[in-house]
Amino acid sequence: MADQVFNSPLNVGFEAPLVLLVLVALEAVLSADNAIALAAIARGLEGSKLQRRALNLGLVVAYVLRITLILTATWVVQFWQFEVLGAAYLLWLVFQYFTSSEDEEHHHHGPVFTSLWQAIPVIAVTDMAFSLDSVTTAIAISDQTWLIITGGTIGVITLRFMAGLFIQWLQEYEHLEDAGYITVGFVGVRLLVRAINPELVPPEWLLVLAIVLVFVWGFSSKKTMRESEVEKGE
């Protein structure tokens, strides 16, 4: 269906903007779980100022890695080992989160950092692992590198905005962090299945639907005022 639309002679002048719109929409939808993972990682630093700096600098490095991945995508997709490594890393994040003890003071699972420079590479590598899924999807839609790079650039900007929002929301909603890591697990399993047998990969709409349903649950219950104040350090 998409191929018929993009190849239609009536669409010659609109193909690039249409493809770009699709790529940006995909980036926005598929960035929700990425954003919450990055927000949760940034929360391993003490104070909102350091958390914002970690996101800013981490995503600058992540952007460079993402562009490198896009430029080498036709080579990378030939090696299933990259997808296995990405899947293993994301599933390790999920395992670490659900098996780690909670920080009693800030109700935070996951890694805790003593400096900004410890958090930056973790944020960059995490985005890189997610990018294996989004970039593979992007090159399946378009073979025009500049379009994919443009979509990726807008995606990183969107990701920074969304991650900033999620840092605030994680302090307000009881199940949101759990929901975020469950969706990270979805992406990890999807990458692993694709590496084993691409024909078994579920359709994109099914992943999006699953992410939406999990996030509906994540936003279903607010924390008490006291819990929110504790997490904000008030």
UniProtKB/TrEMBL annotation:
<dbReference type="InterPro" id="IPR005496">
    <property type="entry name" value="Integral_membrane_TerC"/>
</dbReference>
<dbReference type="InterPro" id="IPR022493">
    <property type="entry name" value="CHP03716_TM_YkoY"/>
</dbReference>
<keyword id="KW-1133">Transmembrane helix</keyword>
<feature type="transmembrane region" description="Helical">
    <location>
        <begin position="147"/>
        <end position="167"/>
    </location>
</feature>
<feature type="transmembrane region" description="Helical">
    <location>
        <begin position="119"/>
        <end position="141"/>
    </location>
</feature>
<feature type="transmembrane region" description="Helical">
    <location>
        <begin position="54"/>
        <end position="73"/>
    </location>
</feature>
<comment type="similarity">
    <text>Belongs to the TerC family.</text>
</comment>
<feature type="transmembrane region" description="Helical">
    <location>
        <begin position="20"/>
        <end position="42"/>
    </location>
</feature>
<protein>
    <submittedName>
        <fullName>DUF475 domain-containing protein</fullName>
    </submittedName>
</protein>
<dbReference type="Pfam" id="PF03741">
    <property type="entry name" value="TerC"/>
</dbReference>
<dbReference type="GO" id="GO:0016020">
    <property type="term" value="C:membrane"/>
</dbReference>
<keyword id="KW-0812">Transmembrane</keyword>
<keyword id="KW-0472">Membrane</keyword>
<feature type="transmembrane region" description="Helical">
    <location>
        <begin position="202"/>
        <end position="219"/>
    </location>
</feature>
